[in-house]
Amino acid sequence: MPVIASWSAVRLSADREERDRAPVVGTTVDHLTETYRAHYRSLLGLAALLLDDTASCEDVVQEAFIRVHSARNRVRDPDKTLAYLRQTVVNLSRSALRRRILGLRLLSKPMPDMASAEEGAYEQLERDQLVKALRGLQRRQREVLVLRYFADMTEAQTAETLGISVGSVKAYGSRGIAALRVAMEAQQA
Questions:
Q1: What are the residue boundaries of the RNA polymerase sigma-70 region domain, all occurrences included (predicted)?
Q2: Which of 71, 125, 171, 183 supports an S-S bond with 133, CB 3.0-4.6 Å?
């Protein structure tokens, strides 16, 4: 048993020495620094072709170098570092454009106008007056006006709902609006 234990210890020690002598795989920090110095401007130009403002271009290129630095062990061949950086710049530029387009879409939607407190109170008073005037109408006139103008039904749909003819809907609607106008003017005076 001791011979086997010592043999495995010798083998482990030999494996460690071999790994220590093996070249480092991946892009080194020094190589990445040299790549930064040599190709920063060309990568900035690439980003400028894809984006429209200098600040965004600089941000994209710097972010690309940060990402490549973080993943430098995955770039096995140092000669491919520049290609990896270029692809990262292109991908980050696309992402920046997507975010910008999404922001423009959200900003292009008009914000709803908010009524002031006074306008809201005035509208509430008008609404109360309208409801009071509607209650003073004949039942059929009220039904026709509510279905036509509040439920947004057509004359045919209103006639079908109430079980009356389209001509009756027109007549009740016309008389109802006239009566409503008189009632609203009486409340205002």
A1: 36-100
A2: 183
